[in-house]
Write a structure and sequence with these properties.
Distance between the termini: 40 Å
Order of helices and strands: EEEEEEEEEEE
Number of strands: 11
Strand content: over 45%
């Protein structure tokens, strides 16, 4: 069983940046795909970054060029740098993992979830 712990959210003004982290209870290495999702109340969870087991990273069009994801396998930690923030980036951000090589777009393909961290962007 993998446990994920999110941290690093906060409140910023539009144009600002934040660094989010997700610490795993074990090395995710090359056995897991991981992803970052976000959700606002009343809407479905939206995938924003997908990292397959080889480390290949894909970004949703809505965040491409503004968000940067990375992994530190030695620290069992995922990072998400979010920049040039817009009010529509507001939401609860979750990291997710699955013991599968391909990073799926659907949230129900992920078995392991962080508790989420709130990001609020004001205009």
């Amino acid at each position: 069983q993998v446990q994920l712990v999110n941290s690093g959210g906060g409140s910023v003004q539009a144009g600002g940046s934040l660094n989010l982290s997700c610490e795993a209870s074990t090395s995710l290495g090359t056995s897991y795909s991981v992803a970052w999702f976000r959700q606002v109340p009343g809407k479905e969870r939206e995938g924003v970054v997908f990292i397959d087991s080889t480390g290949e990273t894909t970004y949703a069009d809505s965040v491409k060029g503004r968000f940067t994801a990375s992994k530190d396998d030695a620290k069992h930690t995922l990072y998400l740098q979010i920049g040039r923030l817009k009010p529509e980036d507001t939401g609860t951000y979750y990291c997710a993992g699955a013991r599968w090589f391909r990073a799926e777009r659907e949230s129900d393909k992920y078995n392991y979830w962080g508790q989420g961290t709130q990001v609020t962007v004001s205009s």
